[in-house]
Automatic annotation (TrEMBL):
It comes from Cellulomonas oligotrophica. This is PTS beta-glucoside transporter subunit EIIBCA. GO terms for molecular function: kinase activity; protein-N(PI)-phosphohistidine-sugar phosphotransferase activity; protein-phosphocysteine-trehalose phosphotransferase system transporter activity. GO terms for biological process: phosphoenolpyruvate-dependent sugar phosphotransferase system; trehalose transport. The chain crosses the membrane at residues 109-131, 143-162, 174-194, 214-236, 256-278, 298-321, 333-356, 368-388, 395-416, 436-459. Keywords: Cell membrane, Kinase, Membrane, Phosphotransferase system, Sugar transport, Transferase, Transmembrane, Transmembrane helix, Transport.
Length: 633
């Protein structure tokens, strides 16, 4: 009865804080979070939700109000739906208002290959350093081959966008790629005779004074290489034409006639109307932003430097990503990127100051790695959610530093060449645009301000928790020896901070690692009881008291079990190495999901120390070792 009452208390407190049953449109849950869709988001009291017993934090994203509970979320969900007159739904829709839908559209299309863009951009940044330091090396064919490797993704961006847009608009991705190929063809393959009789590309033909028409209608031809908006709109048009063709064509001819009709309609329509209109729209947006920037780059840099990490928290930064990519595709850089380095590295500096100043060893253990991740790689989610935003004041200090540093960088006209994640390593991407010295001064100033303010003005520290006694409901039932958690899947173990989920990577749900899987055979990491079993996630309480969450993939709850073949049920007792689930990794990857398997010790706070393994592991290898806290005499 006591346990059930605890879950009901959490459920009642959360439901009241989100505005009561009347404000809930629907609610569902994944392995760690309650996912609400609210009728009026403003009616929810976020602070009150976060103060509810059992709630770790709140994340608002994509029209959802997500309440992070942890391993017992299913119990809270049961109490919530039993006590309230609530409807439930699958977790697949975009929901929300216009802004939420725009953000959902942008994230769906850009996220799957964003890290490829970032990696290629970083390689271009390093090549820029080489060109500055050794101009002779930049004149070699070796340099050119590296440059081709870095620049290829930007030159042929329509192919990447075609695949992800097809998934978003539920179109045939191979037809989408064929449309992208037709658009890129106009810039790359000689197909029509030029003024001197030699074959040239369609673009060269028009540039040479030739008249390009389609059924007598003049074609305003633009360059589709590196294009962003034209291919997205073309794939959207494809989805409509394709749906109509599939609906009216007989089964016997649909498979090959539908693609023929779609290509015959969409490609000419793109050349005649969609492409030129999209190009004008993209150029107009870029011109408007750059014009405003030119009026007062200092003010623009200060606003973006102060607000960038706030945008990240609410997911609003995705609305700017298409502008970045559009500018980069047109001119090789975007002035909007210059102030971002100050904004990002300031958060890392604030986290570093917290690591020095806090008296809480658990917080220090999160803050140190989070600072390193933010400063070097520009990955600030662990710093934001695990440290600065959690303490509030350091987040504000970092925003102040970002504003000052962003203004300085923007005043120098600094910008990144190519798409990079702003960080200490990738700052080299700003060497070739504007004043690199001003960029370094601005970023350094931002870091100093954030670090010094956090260290001197301070923050309300989190009290150190006393370790629960062994054998208590919240403590490990151990015989005094270390508990071991084995690798549930073969692959490469990576630090939790590198996992692409801000709640997992922050350490808020417990210490652990991510495993990039080599195969889809997932086994039990401990011997014990299965306390929760979902197709994509499994909570286990080991016989020695260690509580483990095995979460297969990032945000894979949206697959509704597709690609997962569970081998256990809730309540079963399993032995270490026993199969939990078989996962079709190609299905996950083709659907655009990261298959990284997160392994967390959700009651790690009850232990004195947690040792983690990284690198190549086989299923059953030692992954995590936890040392129990000393039992008071």
């Amino acid at each position: 009865m006591a346990a059930a009452s605890k879950y009901e208390t959490t459920a009642d407190a959360v439901l009241a804080a989100v505005g009561g049953p009347g404000n809930v449109d629907s609610v569902t849950h994944c392995a760690t979070r309650l996912r609400f869709r609210l009728k009026d988001a403003a009616a929810a009291d976020r602070a009150r939700v976060e103060q509810a017993p059992g709630v770790i934090t709140v994340v608002e994203s994509g029209g959802q109000f997500q309440v992070v509970i942890g391993n017992t979320v299913n119990k809270v969900y049961e109490a919530l739906t039993r006590n309230g007159d609530l409807s439930t739904s699958s977790d697949g829709g975009s929901g929300g208002g216009v802004m939420a839908r725009v953000i959902d559209l942008v994230t769906s299309i850009f996220t799957p290959f964003l890290w490829v863009l970032a990696g290629a951009g970083l390689l271009k940044a390093l090549l820029a350093v080489v060109a500055e330091v050794s101009p002779g090396a930049a004149a070699t064919t070796t340099y050119e081959i590296f440059f081709v490797a870095a620049d290829g993704v930007f030159q042929f961006l329509p192919f990447f966008l075609a695949i992800t847009a097809a998934k978003k608009f539920k179109a045939n991705q191979w037809v989408s790629v064929a449309i992208a190929a037709a658009l890129v063809y106009s810039d790359t393959v000689a197909v029509v005779a030029g003024p001197d009789g030699a074959d040239v590309t369609l673009n060269a033909f028009v540039a040479g004074g030739g008249e390009l028409t389609f059924l007598g209608v003049p074609v305003v031809l633009i360059s589709y290489l590196q294009g962003v908006i034209p291919i997205i709109l073309a794939v959207y048009a494809q989805s409509k034409v394709e749906a109509l063709a599939n609906r009216v064509l007989p089964d016997a001819i649909r498979n090959f006639v539908a693609p023929m009709i779609t290509l015959a309609v969409v490609v000419p329509a793109t050349f005649l109307a969609i492409g030129p209109a999209a190009d004008y729209l993209g150029q107009g947006l870029s011109w408007a932003v750059n014009s405003l920037w030119s009026l007062s780059p200092v003010v623009g840099g200060a606003l973006l430097g102060a607000g960038w990490q706030i945008f990240v928290i609410f997911g609003l930064h995705w609305g700017l990503v298409p502008l970045f990519v559009q500018d980069i595709s047109m001119q090789g850089y975007s002035l909007l990127t210059g102030p971002l380095f100050a904004a990002v590295l300031a958060q890392g500096a604030a986290a570093a100051a917290v690591a020095i100043k806090t008296k809480n060893s658990d917080l220090r253990g999160v803050a140190g790695p989070a600072a390193l991740s933010g400063i070097l790689a520009g990955i600030t989610e662990p710093a934001i959610y695990g440290v600065t935003l959690r303490l509030k004041k350091p987040f504000v200090y970092a925003c102040i530093g970002g504003a000052v540093g962003g203004a300085i960088a923007a005043a120098g006209g600094s910008a990144a060449e190519g798409f990079v994640v702003p960080g200490g390593i990738s700052i080299a991407a700003t060497i070739g645009v504007g004043s690199f010295a001003m960029q370094l001064i601005g970023t350094g100033t931002a870091m100093v301000i954030a670090f010094v303010l956090t260290l001197t003005l301070g923050f309300t520290d989190i009290p150190q928790k006393a370790a629960p006694e062994a054998g208590t409901p919240d403590g490990p039932a151990s015989d005094g020896g270390p508990a071991q958690v084995l690798a549930p899947v073969a692959g490469t173990a990576v630090p939790l901070g590198e996992v692409a989920d801000k709640v997992f990577s922050s350490g808020a749900l417990g210490a652990g690692v991510g495993v990039v899987p080599a195969d889809g055979h997932v086994v039990a990491p401990v011997s014990g009881q299965v306390v929760s079993a979902m197709p994509h996630a499994y909570g286990l309480r080991g016989d020695d008291g260690v509580e483990v969450l095995v979460h297969v993939g990032i945000d894979t709850v949206r697959l509704d079990g597709r690609g997962f073949s569970p081998a256990v049920r809730q309540g079963e007792h399993v032995t270490a190495g026993q199969p939990l689930v078989d996962v079709d990794l190609p299905t996950l990857r083709s659907a655009g999901y990261d298959p990284t398997t997160v392994v967390l010790v959700t009651n790690s706070a009850a232990y004195a120390a947690v040792a983690l393994t990284t690198g190549a592991v086989a299923a059953g290898d030692l992954l995590v070792t936890v040392e129990p806290a000393a039992v008071p005499a």
